[in-house]
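Suppose you are handed only these lines of text.
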Amino acid sequence: MGTLIVQCNQCQRSHTVDVAELEFDTVGSDDRQMGPEVLYGAEHDIYCTCENHIQISHQYSEYPIGVENEGTTDVTGAFVISDTL
Ligand SMILES: [Zn+2]
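From them, the structure of the protein bound to zinc ion can be written out as follows.
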């Protein structure tokens, strides 16, 4: 868990999003062998100074409970430079 750095598609300005800025909600769960797997997701918007709207969507799962698995990040409107979310 860390930060995401993206570069605006329109003006090449870079933006950094800290994981602390993301608000995660439970988006699903599944019962598995070692107990429940819980899916968390967060949506984050960046309005660049060039007026480009950058949309970030990040999801990860916790399974077994207490263990956070590597997540996936979808970014619209920007290029991902570094993703350690
Ligand atoms: Zn921009």
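What can we learn from it? The two ends are 4 Å apart (CA to CA). The pocket of zinc ion is lined by residues 8, 10-11, 13, 48, 50, 52 (CB under 6 Å).
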